[in-house]
Amino acid sequence: MRVVLDHITKRFADVTAVSEFSATLEDGELVSLLGPSGCGKSTLLNMLSGILPVSGGKIYFDDQDVTSMPPEKRGIGLVFQNYALYPHMTVMGNICFPLETQRVPKAERIERANEIAKLVHVDMLMNRKPSELSGGQQQRVAIARALAMEPKMMLFDEPTSALDPELTGEVLRVLRDLADQKTTMIIVTHEMSFARDVADRILFMDGGVVVEEGPAHQVIEHPHEERTKQFLSHYGT
Ligand code: ADP
Ligand code: MG
């Protein structure tokens, strides 16, 4: 799905979190959204998914204006830093839940859940509860749950920030595999080598606006803007 953000703005009381943000994501493109804490990354993802209404601007999915469309109709998979699994449900139950709400028949739900579980390597954990999983396993289940709806776009908001380095690597490998699929994706991450190697393009944000954008290798290895350079010297590769 092709996604157009046309001068998107978000104001909270006295803060402008995102200011006239414009970008186009081509179908199947993987964009990494980088920038310092508080620059508006989460706000932007939440407006795309429909959780937050925009204060101004338009959002288009394949030329359809979805600016006022409710989140459940947008077909977007969202994965947060904190996996927020349903604690009383098994892994199978968690992955199937969105399908159940969409009234997918049971046999098909189970088949699809098993397929997706293989993709993110949690197929051997289907009968466990979240409390019986490592953080990396929980995050992979959260990714599976988002994928189960067969989303037209996937958004990842710092999906590895709550994980230690080993588990981070585990989740990044899964994201790397997903990158080969033809789903349009935005990943907010502080893993610069991942962004460089896996993203097609980088958007670097600061203060609610795009400061620099370009092919991932170019932005990470040869940033032009001072703020990008400062950010990269902090997070490094
Ligand atoms: P990031 O994800 O890049 O760290 P955020 O999108 O969370 O940044 O926040 C961008 C700015 O908007 C920050 O100044 C933050 O304090 C502010 N902000 C975010 N959510 C709210 C909210 N619900 N109410 C008021 N201000 C908010
Ligand atoms: Mg954030």
Structure description:
It contains nine helices and ten strands. It has 237 residues and is of the alpha/beta class. Helices cover 38% and strands 26% of the residues. The strands form two sheets. A six-stranded mixed beta sheet has the order 6-7-8-3-9-10, with helices on both faces. Strands 2-1-4-5 form a four-stranded antiparallel beta sheet, with helices on one face. It has helices spanning 41-49, 71-74, 91-101, 106-119, 135-148, 165-179, 192-198, 216-221, 226-235; strands at 3-12, 15-25, 30-34, 56-61, 64-65, 76-79, 153-157, 184-188, 201-206, 209-215. The mean pLDDT is 95. A hairpin with a 2-residue loop joins strand 9 (201-206) and strand 10. Bound molecules: adenosine-5'-diphosphate and magnesium ion (MG). Adenosine-5'-diphosphate binds next to strand 2 and helix 1.
Q: Rounded to an integer, what's the Rg over CA atoms?
A: 18 Å
Low-confidence stretches: none
The arrangement of helices and strands along the chain is EEEHEEHEHHHEHEHEEHH
Q: What strand line-up does the widest sheet have?
A: 6-7-8-3-9-10
Give the strand tally: 10
Q: List the bound ligands.
A: adenosine-5'-diphosphate, magnesium ion
What is the terminal-to-terminal distance? 30 Å
Percent helix: 25-40%
Mean pLDDT: 95
